Amino acid sequence: MKKHARKYVAAALAVAGVAGLSLAAAATLNVETSKEIAIGSGTFAPCDTDGVKVSYDYTTLGTGFIIENVTVSDIAAECAGEAIAVSLTDADGDQLASGTGTVAGTSFEYDVTGDAIDIALDLGEATVIISG
Predict the structure, then answer these.
(1) Domains of the chain, each with CATH number or no CATH
(2) What are the b/e assignments for 84-93, b being 16+ CB within 10 Å?
(3) Mean pLDDT of 65-84
(4) Which residues sit opposite 118 in a β-bridge?
(5) Cα 107 to the chain's mean position, in Å?
(6) How much is the pTM?
(7) What is the percentage of the chain residues whose pLDDT exceeds 90?
(8) Is the pLDDT at 76 greater than 70, yes or no?
C-alpha cells in the first residue's frame, strides 16, 4: 500500500471512530421531556415597613459578656402569627447561632444561652427575617 493511501485510510478510520463515539454518547443521554418549567415573579407587601429593634440580654462571664437572649421588638402588629428567623453572625459572616419561631404580638424572644456568644469578641451582625 502506498504512503498516501495509508494516510487516507488512517484519516477515514479516525473520522469513523469519532462519529461512532458521538453516536454512542448521544445514545446514552437521557433527556427528561415530561417536566414543566415555570418562571415568574411576584410582589408582596411586607408586614413591617419601618424596621425592628434587636436587643440582647447578657451576663458576665470572666472578662466577657455572654448573650443569653435576643429580643426582636417593635414588630408591626400585622406580623403577629408570622414565621420569624433570627441569625447571629460573627464579623466574617460565619453563623454563631440561629433560631426560628412565630411572632407573638409585636416581639419575639430567642434563647441563646447554650451558644456562649461573647458580645465583644464574637458578635458581628443580627439578621431578622419575618415571612408569612
Answers:
(1) 53-131 (2.60.40)
(2) bebbbbeeee
(3) 90
(4) 66
(5) 25
(6) 0.61
(7) 20
(8) yes
* Closest C-alpha among 100, 99, 98, 89 to residue 123: 89
Would you say 86 and 99 are in contact if contact means Cβ atoms under 8 Å apart? yes
Confidence of residue 4 (pLDDT cuts 50, 70, 90): low
Task: Tell me the C-alpha to C-alpha distance, in Å, between residue 77 and each of 60, 71, 83, 105.
Answer: 34, 16, 13, 6
Tell which wins on pLDDT, 96 or 32: 96
For the chain, what percentages of helix, strand and coil (3-state, to nearest 5) are there?
25, 40, 40
Quick one: DSSP state of residue 69? E
Are 100 and 83 within 8 A, CB to CB? Answer: yes
